[in-house]
Backbone:
């Protein structure tokens, strides 16, 4: 069986963001991801769906879980996977992104997975390359596979997304995860709340149809899901918060604050975590409430689904 | 003489002119203090009481008003106790009718840590005669780079956030600090002088500064920052108070901002109400203040601002300096003048000159600062702490620095004729100052 004989899922040949997808496409990706969870848990995890296809991982920013997750997803579907290390490539010698794109294009990959520190990088590459481009995170813009894996995690745990109340807490200003999640969760009918100090809220955030809170306890009242974000110190010019201890005191998730959420509320974090900054260790490690490890597992499954879906559109 | 004490018992005032700007009250009557709190107040209270009762003070028609709240007091504690300690500042405050001093964080070390706010509160509790409400720094070490832990500092008891007499030069830092403060609904108190424009300047740029040959900065250094900060307040939604302004341009900008509904207020110091740039005279360093004394037109605008209500509060901008910092050439001398004991007499000058009513002047010294800072003081309402001043609005006197209670005596008003001052001051119903007692048996 080749991928092109399966029914199509995506209308476009790239996955650049949640923006641009419709609810039907997202739901189909989640359904497909569900099937790959089973495959990933089986002793023989390998399929031949992408046999002969080449996948290039191009990561301009360091990443452990996303890069290895895409690598595993590609390999489990039978593709040849090449990890381009930016540090040792000519990109670090001053080559422009467009030049890098034409070089890669000449190698005839089928899928390029790209992570870049600047917003719009994946979009730019998609216009210059003949292959499919998957955005694995661009600046503070989008990280669509993270939002999809979060949705898959929620759906498997709570059976649905529609009607749930989800609080996204922390450094929303610098977060592509927040932006993708806001779009996806709203699309599937969840109520989204943003909780952050005003310095970490982006301009006009209320225009995204979310509720905004600067008081975490009030923001967490009655929520089904608490999604914590990492304080992205590396993206900050100057101080947005005065200290880690003050941040933890007012915006770190501890037992007391979590007590305001709905009983049995789930805690998520895209990783890597700063323990004692945005989340207390005992919560991160509490398997009753934390689904952080499950998010990583769903990451591989959803990326297999994305690669599968993109391959279906290839000639 | 044993001072009457209503802290743990009863103390009554009769035959007073009661003025409570918070409620608009201005009547003849009496007031009862029980266990440190105002228990009753009314027009005919104690009219028939036996006047020789030791628990009853006959006010002989003098004004009984809420004790003053001075929103801008620099002390030397911690770090420069030889200039002023919390205890010595509180002596000066009590003598000036001031029952709450709002202290600035410009000490050594800077008050930018919850533990230091706690230190000020404990020291005040142990040594000061009046209430001390500490402000904390807005940026760490007053360096203008990173905002302080506003949430934790507020929990520790900081009532507002300011870099004191320093302006946060960097607009990005200021934007973040305001935005962060708004998160905690904290009041930010700003100082408006463009730091680069005033660098090295000792006075206001004018014909007079040219004649004196002093390094000077244009007065618009103030309006530039006032206008910048108004824009930033509009962007961030912060609550903002200009600690003191001194120019018409700043006043006009603030008046317009208030009309637009922004949460912006401002204060003015007694110095800028009474003195102008010419008072620097022959390089008189005790009149070197920050911001510097301005033109007569600007001074008149400040008086007008208080009269119209556009200026919300009047402050002393009490800044003790010693011989080491003031006995210098004008350019080398430190900025600042003491003012706790001249705040009330100076403000009363506006009343005597017919610029504003007595209740309005007192409002700018009591009810309005209390509202801005969220203090329970500044009112004669039943149940509130009995922080009171008994004042004679008419008593004439000539200021003699030797009679000041402050440890530092760098007053800008030496030899000035005033009319009206505090006769007795009470904190929690306890008499902390009595002019009759301080004069001693031989009188004045």
Residues:
């Amino acid at each position: 069986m080749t991928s092109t004989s399966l029914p199509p899922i995506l209308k476009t040949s790239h996955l650049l963001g949640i923006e641009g997808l419709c609810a039907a496409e997202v739901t189909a990706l989640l359904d497909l991801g569900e099937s790959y969870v089973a495959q990933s848990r089986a002793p023989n995890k390998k399929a031949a769906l992408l046999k002969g296809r080449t996948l290039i991982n191009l990561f301009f920013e360091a990443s452990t879980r996303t890069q290895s997750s895409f690598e595993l997803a590609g390999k489990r579907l039978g593709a040849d996977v090449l990890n381009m290390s930016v540090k040792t490539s000519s990109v670090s010698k001053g080559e422009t992104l467009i030049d890098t794109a034409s070089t890669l294009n000449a190698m005839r990959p089928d899928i390029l997975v790209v992570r870049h520190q600047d917003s719009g990088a994946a979009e730019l590459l998609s216009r210059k390359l003949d292959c499919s481009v998957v955005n694995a995170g661009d600046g503070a813009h989008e990280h669509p596979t993270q939002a999809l894996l979060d949705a898959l995690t929620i759906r498997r745990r709570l059976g649905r997304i529609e009607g749930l109340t989800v609080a996204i807490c922390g450094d929303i200003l610098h977060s592509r995860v927040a932006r993708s999640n806001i779009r996806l969760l709203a699309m599937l009918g969840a109520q989204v709340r943003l909780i952050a100090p005003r310095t970490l809220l982006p301009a006009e955030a209320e225009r995204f149809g979310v509720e905004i809170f600067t008081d975490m306890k009030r923001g967490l009242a009655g929520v089904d899901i608490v999604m914590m974000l990492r304080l992205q110190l590396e993206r900050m010019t100057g101080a947005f918060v005065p200290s880690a201890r003050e941040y933890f005191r007012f915006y770190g998730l501890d037992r007391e604050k979590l007590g305001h959420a709905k009983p049995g509320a789930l805690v998520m974090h895209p990783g890597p975590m700063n323990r004692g900054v945005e989340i207390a260790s005992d919560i991160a490690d509490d398997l009753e409430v934390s689904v952080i490890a499950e998010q990583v597992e769903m990451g591989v499954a959803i990326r297999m689904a994305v690669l599968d879906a993109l391959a279906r559109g290839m000639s | 003489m044993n001072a009457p004490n209503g802290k743990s018992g009863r103390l009554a005032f009769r035959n007073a002119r009661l003025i409570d700007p918070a409620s608009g009250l201005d009547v003849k009557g009496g007031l009862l203090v029980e266990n440190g709190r105002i228990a009753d107040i009314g027009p005919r209270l104690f009219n028939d009481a036996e006047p020789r009762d030791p628990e009853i003070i006959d006010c002989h028609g003098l004004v009984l008003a809420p004790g003053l709240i001075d929103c801008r007091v620099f002390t030397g504690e911690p770090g420069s106790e030889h200039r002023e300690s919390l205890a010595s500042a509180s002596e000066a405050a009590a003598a000036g009718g001031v029952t709450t001093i709002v202290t600035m964080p410009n000490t050594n070390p800077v008050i930018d840590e919850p533990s230091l706010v706690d230190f000020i509160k404990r020291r005040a509790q142990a040594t000061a005669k009046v209430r001390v409400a500490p402000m904390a720094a807005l940026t760490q070490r007053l360096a203008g780079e990173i905002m302080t832990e506003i949430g934790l500092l507020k929990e520790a008891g900081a009532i507002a956030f300011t870099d004191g007499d320093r302006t946060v030069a960097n607009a990005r830092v200021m934007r973040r600090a305001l935005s962060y403060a708004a998160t905690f609904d904290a009041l930010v108190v700003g100082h408006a002088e463009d730091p680069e424009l005033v660098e090295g300047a000792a006075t206001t740029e004018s014909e007079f500064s040219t004649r004196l040959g002093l390094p000077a900065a244009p007065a618009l250094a103030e309006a530039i920052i006032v206008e910048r900060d108004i824009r930033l307040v509009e962007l961030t939604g912060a609550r903002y108070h200009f600690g003191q302004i001194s120019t018409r341009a700043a006043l006009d900008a603030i008046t317009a901002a208030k009309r637009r509904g922004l949460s912006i207020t401002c204060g003015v110091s007694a110095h800028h109400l009474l003195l102008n740039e010419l008072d620097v005279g022959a390089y008189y360093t005790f009149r070197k203040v920050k911001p510097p004394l301005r033109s007569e037109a600007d001074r008149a605008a400040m008086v007008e601002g208080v009269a119209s209500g556009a200026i919300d509060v009047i402050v002393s901008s009490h800044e003790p300096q010693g011989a080491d910092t003031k006995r210098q050439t004008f350019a080398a001398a430190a900025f600042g003048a003491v003012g706790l004991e001249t705040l009330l007499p100076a403000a009363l000058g506006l009343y005597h000159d017919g610029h504003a009513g007595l209740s309005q002047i007192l409002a700018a010294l009591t009810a309005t600062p209390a509202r801005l800072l969220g203090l329970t003081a500044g009112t004669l309402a039943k149940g509130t702490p009995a922080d009171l001043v008994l004042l004679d609005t008419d008593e004439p006197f000539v200021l003699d620095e030797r009679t000041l209670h402050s440890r530092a005596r760098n007053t800008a008003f030496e030899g000035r004729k005033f009319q009206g001052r505090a006769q007795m001051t009470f904190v929690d119903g306890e008499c902390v100052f009595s002019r009759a007692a301080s004069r001693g048996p031989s009188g004045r």
In short: The radius of gyration of chain A is 19 Å. Chain A has eleven helices and nine strands.
